Amino acid sequence: LGRYQLAIKNYNQAINLDPAYANAYNNRGTAYSGLNERRQAIEDHSKAISLKHDYTEAYYNRGVVYILSGQYQEAIQDFNETIRLNPDYIPAYYNRGVAYSKTSQYQLAINDYDKIIRLKPDYADAYNNRAAVYLNLGNHELGCLDAQKACELGICKVLEIAKSNGDCRPS
Questions:
Q1: Is 81 within 8 Å of 59 (Cβ atoms)?
Q2: What is the pTM assigned to this prediction?
Q3: Nearest to 80 by CA among 68, 66, 25
Q4: Are the CB atoms for 61 and 89 separated by under 8 Å?
Q5: From its phi and psi, is residue 169 left (phi > 0), alpha (psi between -120 and 50) or beta?
Q6: What is d(CA 35, CA 50) in angstroms, rounded to the nearest whole number?
Q7: What is the mean pLDDT of the chain?
Q8: CA-to-CA distance for 75 and 102, rounded, in angstroms?
């Protein structure tokens, strides 16, 4: 907690010295997010973007805050922009997939997890989340295959839940 407050103090000083310092706004926004001060975090990330229109990290960070705030459509827009600026940025696909899932846009979520797996075939969280989407859609075969793969890569939560629900057979 104290780290974030100290960081905010230091970024305030940097902004006072250079009010056009986009990185300071972005980083202060991240510190505010760490304190769950989401409105202020969004304002700072937005200010960073207004100062530097192609600021991939600020779009991404604001998207994460939007997800935490339950503002999924806004998050999707920011992740779209992040991906436009950096088409191979895996965390943006991952979090956009989460936002798509939260808004019942399941095929779009699957598409994002597919893209991650193409870019990074050992990304356990992508298999895990795609498994959850497939299982929610009633596709037990693909859901269980992905849950098993995620477990092989070290994340077994969805597989354990699916087995206890009778969706996947114990191995």
A1: yes
A2: 0.93
A3: 66
A4: no
A5: beta
A6: 23
A7: 96
A8: 11
